Amino acid sequence: MFVFWSFALLLIDAAKGEEICYERVGCYTDDIPWSGTPERPIKRLPWSPERINTRFLLYTKNNPNNFQEITAVEPETIDYSNFNASKITRFITHGFVDQGEENWLSDMCKRMFEVEDVNCICIDWKKGSRCPYTQAANNIRVVGAEVGYFINTLEARYGYSPSMVHFIGHSLGAHAAAEMGNRVPGIGRITALDPAQPYFQGTPPIVRLDKNDAAFVDVIHTDSAPTIPYLGFGMSQAVGHLDFYPNGGEYMPGCKKNIISQIVDIDGIWEGTRDFVACNHLRSYKYYSDSILYPDGFLGYPCAGHNLFETGTCFPCPQGGCPKMGHYADEFKNKISSGFQKLYLNTGEAKVFARWRYKISVTLSGKSSVRGYINIALYGTGGNTRQYQIFQGKLKPDETYSNLTDVELDVGTVTMVKFLWNNNMINPTLPKLGAAKVAVQDGENGNVFNLCGSGTVREDVLQTLTPC
Ligand SMILES: *[C@@H]1O[C@H](CO)[C@@H](O)[C@H](O)[C@H]1NC(C)=O
Ligand SMILES: *[C@@H]1O[C@H](CO)[C@@H](O)[C@H](O)[C@H]1NC(C)=O
């Protein structure tokens, strides 16, 4: 009994944390669950709003290149800006060590202006993000409160409905949504771009982003390997209405390149060094940005796991279609079921990251088996693809070889297929093989195109197949 009571007292003592209050944005404690838990061992209180200096940088179609800085503390700055209260507003927030003037945020706004007319507000909280991680992870609460205050001001001043707000947050920025969502009911949408894992994964919903923070919450996971020992920075836990795991959500293609090849990338040296340390983590916003211009190039296939997705169990898209990862994910919001939905897709390894998934089945013709591989290129109303390897191994006449392939464009109606085989060595018997039939199934709608070929060809000689 004595042991029990002293243990309980110890807990109460630990739970009685400090509290700090700020004008306008309220009080914050370091009590459980904010600190003193296995997930959040180090106690920190958020810095003051003045020290974090959350800034709101407005871009519109009328000022796509130069922001107007607006603030809810002096709301006349909003009156005099290009902010238009009859349009929806998308907020974009950076994460740890990053800053709101980084090109990726304003570039995302510019891409939006190519397809829609919105208020695009980049949130800069660099003064609160360039500090030890444990501090930044608490500062994000004040950032969320500031966004909440901003939205409340819009509502009071213009009758602006929170349902017209879309909050896009990367990394730690995604968790600002927790404080914002707790303060402003009825936010339209939150998109979390690889929400940060340390100090958030496994914590109660009040601490982190969760699906009750907005009417619709979509999440892109790109760096969700465990932080220890793999240094994964993003959450693996599903926390939205739709959770997308591109390439399985842990390791992104193209992220193994050395620093030199990153520097020659169009984004330059700074982007190169950023990529070197956090390539997987940064992919989330790059995919989102590409999705604005390639709506159907990021279809998420509902599936119980990435392995099942890779083996074709979850192909093609179900009757109701596949949700789109990224900008257009909310087109699916009226079709979401209860519970968490996990979605899988593959991307390219450099931009443009969009990919379209096809199942390609090749039935061979010929006289005898030979070792080698099969390549296929698709031609259609949407363009033609490069050659993709479908199979490698023993090639037997009359056998059918199938493979799921993520190609670089939407082929549309398949009008022609080119077949090529090779065994990479000089074979004095000069064997010949052909493709008697190729069936191409489009993942988006399940449509199958059948193409037929006649005869056989030597290795490295292209055979053309046309609709049967
Ligand atoms: C705001 O947007 C609406 C709808 O697009 C438009 O009719 C109106 O003229 C805009 N207001 C201003 C001040 O530009
Ligand atoms: C599909 O082709 C790729 C590339 O050759 C190969 O790695 C993969 O194993 C193939 N999948 C199947 C199911 O044969």
Automatic annotation (TrEMBL):
Record-listed E.C. numbers: 3.1.1.3
InterPro entries linked: AB_hydrolase_fold, Lipase, Lipase_LIPH, Lipase_N, Lipase_panc, PLAT/LH2_dom, PLAT/LH2_dom_sf, TAG_lipase
Disulfide bond positions: C452-C468
Record bears the keyword ATP-binding: no
Pathway(s) of this molecule: Glycolipid metabolism; Lipid metabolism; Glycerolipid metabolism; triacylglycerol degradation
SUPFAM superfamilies per the UniProt record, alphabetical: alpha/beta-Hydrolases, Lipase/lipooxygenase domain (PLAT/LH2 domain)
Signal peptide: 1-17
Compartment(s) of residence: Cell projection, Neuron projection; Secreted; Zymogen granule membrane
Catalytic activity: a 1,2-diacyl-sn-glycero-3-phosphocholine + H2O = a monoacyl-sn-glycero-3-phosphocholine + a fatty acid + H(+); long chain 1,2-diacyl-3-O-[alpha-D-galactosyl-(1->6)-beta-D-galactosyl]-sn-glycerol + H2O = long chain acyl-3-O-[alpha-D-galactosyl-(1->6)-beta-D-galactosyl]-sn-glycerol + a fatty acid + H(+); 1-(9Z-octadecenoyl)-glycerol + H2O = glycerol + (9Z)-octadecenoate + H(+); (9Z-octadecenoyl)-glycerol + H2O = glycerol + (9Z)-octadecenoate + H(+)
Alphabetical list of PANTHER family matching this protein: LIPASE, PANCREATIC LIPASE-RELATED PROTEIN 2
Protein name: Triacylglycerol lipase
Lineage: Eukaryota, Metazoa, Chordata, Craniata, Vertebrata
Gene coding for it: LOC107122033
